[in-house]
Write a structure and sequence with these properties.
The complex is a heterodimer of chains A (270) and B (335). By secondary structure, chain A is mostly beta strands. Chain A is built from three helices and 14 strands. In chain A, a hairpin with a 5-residue loop joins strand 4 and strand 5. The two termini of chain A are 32 Å apart. Chain B has helices spanning 2-15, 49-59, 72-75, 122-126, 128-131, 140-148, 151-161, 167-179, 187-192, 201-210, 246-249, 281-290, 309-320, 325-328; strands at residues 231-232, 258-259. Chain B contains 14 helices and two strands, in the order ααααααααααβαβααα. Chain B is globular. Classes of the chains: A mainly beta (270), B mainly alpha (335).
Chain lengths: 270, 335
Amino acid sequence: MQPVGRRCARAEGARPGQRRRARRCLSRSAPRQQRAGAPVDVTIGLTYAGKAVDFRQPNPRAGGGTFTPTDLTLFVSEVALLADDGRATPVDLVDAAGAPEPYRVHLYRAGDAATETFRFVAPAGRYAGLRFLLGLTDACNGGEPGQRKPPLASYSDMTWPHLPGLGSYLFLRYGGQVAGGGSTAAVPTQIHMGGGVGTMPAPTIQVRASIVVAPDGARMRMDAALDEIFAGATADVDVSRYPGPPSPELVAGERLRQTAAMRHVFSIAP
Amino acid sequence: MRAAAAAALALVACGGGDGRAPLLDTRAPAGFVPADVAQLAPPDNALTEARARLGRRLFFDGRLSRTGEVACASCHRQEHAFADPNAVSTGVAGRVGTRNAPALVNLAWSRRFFWDGRASSLEQQAGQPIENPLEMDLPIADAVARVAGDGDYARAFAEAYGDAPTADTLRKALASFVRTLVSGDTAYDRHLRGDATAFGDAERRGEALFFSPRTGCFHCHPPQALTNDGLFNDGSYADGGDPGRQAVTGLAGDLGRFKVPGLRNVAVSAPYMHDGSVATLEDVVDQYDRGGRGHPSTDPEIAPLGLNAGEKADLVAFLRALTDDAFLHDPRFRP
């Protein structure tokens, strides 16, 4: 069982008096949302045990043997820069050309260079961290993928049919193979993390780091630690109230959803 | 005389001057996004009637092969949803290919082409079978020379692209025709649009099973689109054989990965899998029920399902409900 501590205050993404108001899942940002600022590029890299991972290649795993990640796909949304005192400056996700990303959502797909960097515009200044949803808002997690365009279209690989209590989308999907070595219990081969509209929100991730946005922008690398993802997906947490079917990949996903915000899944290189 | 000329012009404007109904209807079927197929064409190859007609002519023309005997349509047959009823296709001089010719259905929505996904546009895809020694075995420059020497083609290229034929415009024209091959009037589509009579009990049970976490079919074949256009190893062979996507990327994790095909008209596009090794829909369901054939790089999503005979039959019933008879017999898609 993961320790319950003050970090849980941000585990579900809402504190008293600071609940996000429900909003529509807009395919375009409303004009008031298109904030001025400098472009900030965040490139996601994968690590395991502190070392860069070769995607779709065998990598040594703890305890012997190898694992070969073949799929890591996830949504990033509701991005904000954090000040020292915790105040958040929401930022708009934009594409490489500077146009708002549809639905204010970025779909990251490991191995697809076109998606490995997400960009937003931010006021110049010094910040103490980055916050984002590892997944989608309730507004976006509902609705029909077949009626939406990318990255929320039905062929994004991240949809699942409506099931009671669950939304339309996966928030994170991992797939891989393991070979050799001893026990593979700590390295799942599948993780399908989703949520429930109004009941099981996407985890809010806060990454503490010194971030300087210059007037002409900034670039940074954010590592996603697969060992932390695996640990979250195999954590001993209560999943008895999970409304979905008890498939191993879904249960692993629910374990990760409950613990991701408390783990150090993401880190920003200095 | 003026009235006759005006009428002729109107006919040209409407149907290309050959008296046929227009080929191009850019309205996507209800529920498809976007609603206008033309939006899916790249900026440098806007979808027009003239381009689609030219592409149709090329598609059925055996002169695009070295021996003059093999056209695109030789292996992509409309009654089979523009797939080949043989496991692998036969090209010029009886040469046998290595992969099953896939159905050409709704490719306007795709973002990768060929079983190994090596082409990222229809325009990139179109010229490769022409030059493939196992298929049409004709350098693209020679194909261009052949059509350039034909007055009718010269006029058609001028109308479509404003110039004499080039390798680029030849590929673009073929791509334009393939973009018009849109299927969206299956029983499943009518069911999605609210027609309570479209499905019987077996189809409904099959649909529910298909889109359930128990089978997980929807992970690769999501609702409505019926393909996520992804590349996966579905365990359709045991070992060795075609490396699939790995031949393109060189990555170990891509061994045996192939593009997920769309399932509209799947009942008429047998045999199945990248090598045409699975003969019937019943065999497909059996293979997935067994969890594949044991390839070491099989995607972890593929696992034994524990289906009973009735469930298998229901899945097959659902797959058969993905047939669009109007598409299979649409005269616009014939030469």
